[in-house]
Amino acid sequence: MERIKVRYCSRTKAGNTRRIAESIAEGAGVTAISIDDEPKLIGKTDILFLGGAPYANIMAPELRKYAESIEPETVGRIVLFTTSNWSRRTVHALRKIFNEKNIPVADKFFYAHMLNIDGKLEAAVRFGRENCN
Ligand SMILES: Cc1cc2nc3c(=O)[nH]c(=O)nc-3n(C[C@H](O)[C@H](O)[C@H](O)COP(=O)(O)O)c2cc1C
């Protein structure tokens, strides 16, 4: 069993959410994996860091599908992160999906503005380290 996993959906060429995911993963001591490469959460996980971004006000449909396919008994807790131009709605929408499934979601989430990814990488490493226990 992989105790901690970092999964993300990142769509622009800049790879903003991917870069934040990779830093969170560095802090947590694991490897970040795109949901494009692993479209379903496999096995059991204590802590799942999950992130995405809004595109024209909604998260990528693949990310929604991924979240909806998670089986509650396979995850202990989810920690969310997002990048965007202004909106935190991806976090709120994901939280709603997991609340309905009774999967615990940490109150704290990580946000990085799309124009300040570089400035947030260190904080993302710290966030991964501090939220992986
Ligand atoms: C087509 C498109 C639509 C977007 N719509 C929104 C939006 O509605 N709200 C917002 O805050 N940011 C919006 N953004 C900004 C992205 O959420 C932001 O660039 C994010 O960091 C992209 O993450 P990624 O590089 O991992 O794909 C949009 C970006 C694109 C390309």
Provide structural commentary:
- By secondary structure, the chain is of the alpha/beta class.
- The chain has one domain: Flavodoxin domain (Rossmann fold).
- Helix content is 32%, strand content 26%.
- The chain contains four helices and seven strands; from the N terminus they run βαββββαβαβα.
- A five-stranded parallel beta sheet has the order 2-1-3-6-7, with helices on both faces. Strands 4-5 form a two-stranded antiparallel ribbon.
- The longest helix has 13 residues.
- It is globular, with a radius of gyration of 13 Å.
- The structure holds flavin mononucleotide.
Quick gist of this model?
The chain is of the alpha/beta class and 133 residues long. The chain is built from four helices and seven strands. Strand 1, helix 1 and strand 2 form a beta-alpha-beta unit.
How much of the sequence lies in strands comes to 25-35%
Specify the CATH homologous superfamily: Flavodoxin domain
Order of helices and strands: EHEEEEHEHEH
Poorly predicted ranges (pLDDT <50, ≥5 residues)? Answer: none
Number of helices: 4
If you consult CATH, what is the topology? Rossmann fold
Name the features.
133 residues, alpha/beta, Rossmann fold, 5-stranded parallel sheet, two-stranded antiparallel ribbon, 4 helices, 7 strands, binds flavin mononucleotide
Q: What is the element layout, followed by pairings?
A:
Elements: E1 4-8, H1 16-28, E2 32-34, E3 45-52, E4 54-55, E5 58-59, H2 61-68, E6 75-84, H3 89-100, E7 110-113, H4 121-130
Parallel strand pairs: 1-2, 1-3, 3-6, 6-7
Antiparallel strand pairs: 4-5
Helix pairs in contact: 1-4
The structure holds flavin mononucleotide (FMN).
